[in-house]
Amino acid sequence: MKVTIHQPDLLPYSGFWFKMATSDAFIVSKHDQFQKHGYQRRVTMRDRWCSHMLEGKPSLVPITDVVVREGWQQRLVDTISGRYRGAPLWKQRGADLCERILAAEGTRLDEVNLSLIYLIRELLGLTTPILFTDPPQAHARDRLIEQVQAVGGDEYLAGAGGRAYMGEDPEGYFADHGITLTWSDHEHITGDSVVSLLMDLEDPMPAILRRAGDQQRL
Asked: What Å distances lie between residue 186 and 10, 19, 46, CA to CA?
């Protein structure tokens, strides 16, 4: 079973959804440490940041301990409306997306972002199971191995950025633990939130599934 792991980011870019679409199971690593300037609390829309407002100044705490300020739904809808009202698919999809966001629930950062992840997952027609593990005890690549093993996986799909912290010979290290390590070859056409693809493309999936070297026109 091919497993991938990702933190619960805010309406993330296409690489997140590529990993979900091309795996058998998707682990949401909600127990990871909150990153003040990370993608758990912000994402670009039309090349400008869209950010959650948080209670207090959380630091060095798990994502599950961070609280999003009340009214996040309306703030997010206001930003999306302002950035995408002139987009090609706004009239077709804008109102529905905003209504779904206004109906979403959650207080903690992981709950809020997961409600949005489930929402987008449905809009994209993805069915990959979303799984959770107990808070892992290991660190770095051992943390990933622990989570993959916890759900019975034998292959791990890593994002290309993972090479920075995987250490020497990561493929061999994972193999020693009975896991095949593969790397995402997704080639994104925009670093913006998936909302850009939903509002610009009749079918966002070819862009989400785009691999390095693909020549098809979107």
From this structure: 19, 8, 20
Domain assignment of residue 217, yes or no: no
218 part of a folded domain? no
**Could you list the residue range(s) of the whole structural domain that residue 7 is in?**
2-208
DSSP letter string, 36-54:
TTSTTSEEEETTEEEE--B
The 10s digit of each residue's pLDDT in 101-144 is 999 999 999 999 999 999 999 999 999 999 999 999 999 999 99
Residue 67 covered by a domain = yes
How many independent structural domains does the chain possess? 1
C-alpha torsion angle, residues 51, 192, 111, 158 (rounded to 10) = -130
- Half-sphere exposure (Cβ direction) of 57: Cα atoms closer than 13 Å: 0
What is the Cα–Cα distance from 26 to 127, expressed in whole angstroms?
10
In a domain, 94, yes or no: yes
Q: At CB < 8 A and 24+ separation, what contacts does 137-144 make?
A: 140/165, 140/166, 140/167, 141/165, 141/166, 141/167, 141/170, 141/173, 141/174, 144/5
Distance CA 72, CA 112 (A): 9
| pTM (two decimals) | 0.96
Q: Which residue has the tokens 């785009």?
A: 210
Contact, 63 vs 107, CB < 8 A?
A: no
Distance CA 1, CA 22 (A): 11
Tens-place pLDDT, residues 48-74: 999 999 999 999 999 999 999 999 999
